[in-house]
Each structure stands twice: as structure tokens, then as C-alpha cells.
Amino acid sequence: MREIVTAAMQMGAIQKSDNREDVVVRMIALLEEANRAQATFVVFPELTLTTFFPRWYMEEQSEVDQWFESEMPGPATLPLFSRAKELGIAMSLGYAELTPEGQHFNTSILTDNAGNIIGKYRKIHLPGHSDYDNDRAFQHLEKRYFLPGDLGFPVWRNLGGIMGMMICNDRRWPEAYRVMGLQGVEMVTLGFNTPSVNSQMGDEGPEQRLFHHRLCCQSGAYQNATWVVAVAKAGVEDGHPLIGGSLIIDPNGKIMAETQTEEDEMIIHACDLDACNFGKSTIFDFKRHRRIEHYGLITERTGAQTPP
Ligand code: CDT
């Protein structure tokens, strides 16, 4: 057995007016709870430190930049890193990254249990749009505020296992899991901010949104024989609801734990990475069964083209 006691740290709503210091206090409270439950690895959501600001249309770059972190840890996040180090707890954490070169990314980092950052992933599948869209009930401006990630889908050895990260919309794309699956990934972490209603189809509410979310995460886990730990920022942010449904999913695609609220809520599971071995050596033994000579279109073509 190679068990990692893993906690999904769902965060409830963060309002526009909330500050990072207060959010970090909430995060440390969850960290203490995870420690009492003997977790050694915790996963926080996408853009953990602030409200989901891409719902707001902004024209001034200085206004946009206030939502970004130019250092990690920075003054507001240092207490979290210090406490995690004292407790020997490794973390996965999402935030908006502003690089020294002035680039903006939707980023997730991985730390070891001594508080060192050992991995960084920048969100590749950015949903939404770049310009104000009158036809939507609310905006989703990730394409305006972020560049597409430039680091690929790497994996890292941590806590005795092989770990990868993706962010929110990435979970809807099987390619993201598979690129990590081809590197032997045993646990994928992913944070999300998913609006409870489809801005382009009001009939699509939380039930359907949760269905699609579980469907993507469970199939990604099963088809790559990996644990998936999916963590929400949930609740109503300045009138805009986000789904909860944080999940810990085993390599068979089964949900082992799921949050029940849209508040700050921890769920925990002892994830045995050796449970990945059976799937990886049988039905999803990629080396024996994949037929890459037929997969060329996946990298040659972006959009669908129908036959004449
Ligand atoms: N944060 C994020 O990626 N949210 C998307 C919303 C898609 S609708 C524009 C998601 O896939 O949940």
C-alpha cells in the first residue's frame, strides 16, 4: 500500500470585497482540520485567494492586476505556507499568477511536505471569451485576463507517488488526463469555479452542471487508472452561484468522498496509489493497447471538419 491521506479543501464563496488575509485565515482553519484528521496532502481550488474575478468586465489593466499574485508565497500567503510546513502537509493551490515579464496565467502549484514549491501548472483550456458579450446572462472573461498555459501537462514525484495538476475547464478535455496518464500519473488534482447556471442556456442549472462535472472527473480517473481530487470554490459570490460537489475519485472512477455543502468544507480519504496498478496493467495498459497510428487527427486538427 502507498497511502496518501488526502483532503479536498472546498472553499465557500469569496466576495469581491473580501481580502486575501481573511481568505488565508479560512484556509489555515481547513488546514488545521486536515491535520487533525491526519491528512498529509491537501488540495485547494482554482483561484483560491479571491473571488472568481473573470465574471467581471474590466478595461483598466491596473484594476485587473489587483487580482493577481506577483510572488508565491507573498505577504498574504506566507502564513499558510509556514503552517503547512510546520504540520508537514503538502499542498496543491490555485491562484492568478503575474510573472516578472508581465504575463498573466491561471496557475496551480504543488508543494512538498517541507513547504517547497516543486511543481507549477498553468491552465491550458481557458473557457469563455475576450470581449464583453451582451448575449450572456453573465460574463466569463478568462480569455481576456489569462494567457493559455505554456508548461504543458507535466507530472511530479511527490509523497511517494506521481502527481499531476489541471484546472477547472481542463477536466472536460480527455486529452489533458491522457497526457498525464502517459506519464504514469497516479493522482490528478484540479480546482474549479463552475457557475451553477449556464450563462448561454438558463435551463441548464446546478443538477446538470454537477452531472457533467462528475461525468468528466469519473471518466478521466477510470480511463487513466488514476485518483482524481476535484475541489470547488462554491457558493454565491456577489449574487453569482457556483456549484460545490468537490470529489475524491478512485482509479475505478468511483466517488469515495463528496462535499455536501457550498461552504468551506473538508472531505478526506486515504488514497492508496497502488490501487492504480490493476487498471494500468490490464485494460488501460497503454503500451499494449493504444493504437497511435489512428490518433493523428487529435494533434493535427483543432476544430471538427465534417465530410463533404
Ligand atoms: N473556471 C472554469 O474553467 N469554469 C468553466 C466554466 C465553463 S462555462 C464558460 C468550467 O468548465 O467549469
Number of E strands: 14
Number of domains: 1
Rg from Cα = 19 Å
The top-level CATH class is Alpha Beta
Strand content: 25-35%
Shape: globular
Strand order of the largest sheet: 5-4-3-2-1-14
User: What's the overall average pLDDT, rounded?
Assistant: 98
| CATH-scheme architecture | 4-Layer Sandwich
SSE succession: EHEHHEEEHEEHEHEEEEEEHHH
Distance separating the two termini:
54 Å
Helix content: 25-40%
Q: Uncertain runs with pLDDT below 50, 5 residues or more?
A: none
How would you describe what is shown here?
This protein is α/β, with parallel strands linked by helices. The protein has a single domain (3-288), classed as Nitrilase/N-carbamoyl-D-aminoacid amidohydrolase (4-Layer Sandwich), CATH 3.60.110. It has helices spanning 20-36, 61-65, 78-87, 142-145, 174-181, 206-224, 277-281, 286-289, 296-300; strands at 3-10, 41-43, 90-98, 104-111, 117-122, 155-158, 161-167, 187-192, 227-232, 235-237, 240-242, 247-249, 255-258, 265-272. The strands form 3 sheets. The chain has a 6-stranded mixed beta sheet, with helices on one face. Strands 6-7-8-9-12-13 form a 6-stranded mixed beta sheet, with helices on one face. A two-stranded antiparallel sheet has the order 10-11. Strand 4 and strand 5 (117-122) form a beta hairpin. Helix 1 runs parallel beside helix 3 (78-87) and helix 5 runs parallel beside helix 6 (206-224). 43% of the residues are buried. The mean pLDDT is 98. Residues 46, 127-128, 140, 168-169, 172, 192-194 line the site of 4-methylsulfanyl-2-ureido-butyric acid. 4-methylsulfanyl-2-ureido-butyric acid is lined by residues 46, 127-128, 140, 168-169, 172, 192-194.
